[in-house]
Amino acid sequence: MPIRRSLRYLAGLAATLALLATAPGPVAAAQQPAAPAAPATAPAATPAADTWQPPLSTRGRYIVDAKGDRFRLKSANWDGAQGSWTGSGSVEDPANHHAGQNSHGIPLGLDRVPLPTLLADFHRLGINSIRLPFSNEMIRATATVPDGAVAANPQLRGKTPLQIFDAVVSALGRDGFAVILNNHTNTTRWCCGVDGNERWNSGQTTQRWVDDWVFMARRYADEPGVVGADLYNEVRRDILDDPNWGLGDAHDWYAAAQQAADRILTDGNPDLLIVIEGINWTGIPVDGLPHERPTLAPARTLSHTLVNAHKLVYSAHFYGYTGPRHSGATGVGETHDPRYQDLSRDELRKVLTDQAFFVAEDTGRHYTAPVWISEFGIGAAETGTRPRAWFTNLTDYFADHDADFAYWPLVGWEGSDDWALLRYDSAGHRTGILDQGDWRATPWQRLMTAPEHTGPVDPVPTWRMLATDHGDQVQSLIERTHGDWDPGAYKAACPDGLRLIGLGHAAGRGLCTDTGADDPRAPGTAHTVVTDERYVPAGGDWASGYTKFQCPSDQFLIGYSRRGGRVSAALCAPARTPLGTTGRTVWFDRSDNRPADAAGGDFAHGAYKGQCAADEYAAGIAFTTRVGSAGGPDALLCRRLS
């Protein structure tokens, strides 16, 4: 969510900052103007249930429904259940809640408008999906909400926040909306400065966070409208430490997201999309010290591979008052870096591509996935030329790039939060972008009505990375049934339906694909763990002087293991149809040896890489244990698929 109203937070940290002689992590923007303006007309829409069928999955850069038709996330954030208290003063005083709106830990507006009316208004906006934030604290809250918090929905009286969340989820699904659950905060405190909600494990263990996600996935497994799990919001620095992407420590967001995704898809609900947001902030926002918004840039060299290769969606947030190296703060924590709203139209477009949209636009890479901009927004009362131009330029980019998006926020109180698309007064009267006069309506309508890809999406080759940097990455559910097939070694296996096609000479990286062969594995769970040369036929020495772990005839590589830098085993699976037996040796001990099109991308950044061609399979790994060698892969045996 936008890091507004954070000056109170910054003032409260003044003593700490003086002690540290630096500013904290990403803290916020100036207060937004409170006076609402009358908005203009936006397009109406037919119920989303008429045009899509759950569950959702991915094909390259697109999200598709169960029919294989493109489902573009045209979303908005219905906030409130994540909490609204700003962290100081009495929680009972509305003045101590964001924009003066005490949400009572439930979606905003239920005190003013009946649920059916709210949903009808959502449809009028043209959206088809809702990002629905919640907090871990909400899951455990046992007190019922005050009757006044659901005054317009008396059927919800006497219920806990989670029970009301249940009712909202169910109502949204019945009305045709896709629902993406979003773990926004740990506590029910307004996000997003240094507030105790910086990381998924701020104030709680990673294990508890993952268990909570399994609980939520199971709870809504029978709600077909619930299509996604947005794992955590705006991972960022606390006062002392940065999050990272791949270091293997307690602050490793890459690893935590991988762990949560695996548990959700195996123990919770295998149908859910997994939404992983990039890192929102690292470093200390002081001129001369390192600081930035990494967003999705780390995925270029280290991307996620899920047990279902067609469930990954990446996300990022963009607000005009933040910037590539600007936290969004004014005063303490403000630097001289440009904000996004300071960039020209062309500069903004380049930054958006570099920070996020390369993931979707670079087709045929290990990181290729749909990108969902799950937060962006601006106030109806905004009068600044630069912020207005930024919003128009941003929505134009989304329209031109056929992007998936979610506006923040959807619902607010009249006279309180002018950023909301829809605002309701205490009597339930609506104002907002559906009415005349809101300057945002023109860019919004352009975004909602621009040409887009619709209908069937053709299947495309899938490429996924394997990384054994800090432990196992066995992404095959079949192989998990075998247990530990190489005790004591770091093990990796491709997701079911994919085969191993490339390896890095060092660093334990691999590349999986289904190009040229859709699910080549024979039915059943048979596999072969190869730890010696018994399957190298007489006269078939394809890497003279090197140790060769070769698959049996009519089997192909799906995984590998290593001990330190040395190859420990090759993992092979039987083929569904006969495989080719003629092949070639692909050496990569002294340089890269990959197809000319470099399909799959740089899956082992900084290391030499070997890769079979798209119409080949890998049948063996060669390495040497001579003095001075680390024992990493040196060559692949590549053979024609048929």
How does this structure look, described?
There is one protein chain. This protein is α/β, with parallel strands linked by helices. It has two domains: 57-324 and 336-449, Alpha-Beta Barrel (TIM Barrel); 463-640, no CATH class. It contains eleven helices and 28 strands. The chain has helices at residues 7-12, 14-20, 115-125, 136-140, 161-174, 206-219, 253-268, 345-361, 385-400, 441-449, 477-480, and strands at 57-59, 62-64, 74-77, 129-135, 178-185, 226-230, 273-277, 282-283, 291-292, 312-317, 371-375, 404-407, 411-413, 422-424, 430-432, 463-467, 473-474, 490-493, 499-504, 509-513, 528-530, 547-550, 555-563, 566-574, 583-587, 609-611, 616-623, 635-640. The strands form seven sheets. The chain has an eight-stranded parallel barrel with strand order 3-4-5-6-7-10-11-12. α6 runs parallel beside α7 and α9 (385-400) packs parallel to α10. It is elongated, with a radius of gyration of 26 Å.
Which short descriptors sum up this protein?
11 helices; elongated; 642 residues; single chain; alpha/beta; 8-stranded parallel β-barrel; TIM Barrel; 5-stranded mixed β-sheet; 2 domains
**What summary fits the major beta sheet?**
8 strands, parallel, barrel
Kindly, what is the distance between the CA atoms of the first and last residues, rounded to a whole number of angstroms?
52 Å
- Widest sheet: strand order? 3-4-5-6-7-10-11-12
- The CATH homologous superfamily of the largest domain is called Glycosidases
At the first level of CATH, the class of the largest domain is Alpha Beta
What's the number of domains? 2
Q: Report the β-strand fraction as a percent range.
A: 15-25%
Give the oligomeric state of the chains in this entry, treating copies of one chain as homo and distinct chains as hetero.
Answer: single chain
Tell me the helix content. 10-25%
Rg result:
26 Å
By CATH, the architecture of the largest domain is named Alpha-Beta Barrel
Q: Mean pLDDT, rounded to whole units?
A: 92
- Counted beta strands: 28
**CATH topology (fold) name of the largest domain:** TIM Barrel
* Low-pLDDT regions: 3-49
Count of individual helical segments: 11
Class from helix and strand fractions: alpha/beta
Shape: elongated
Pfam family, one: Cellulase
GO molecular function: hydrolase activity, hydrolyzing O-glycosyl compounds
Protein name: Glycoside hydrolase family 5
Biased composition (Low complexity): 32-49
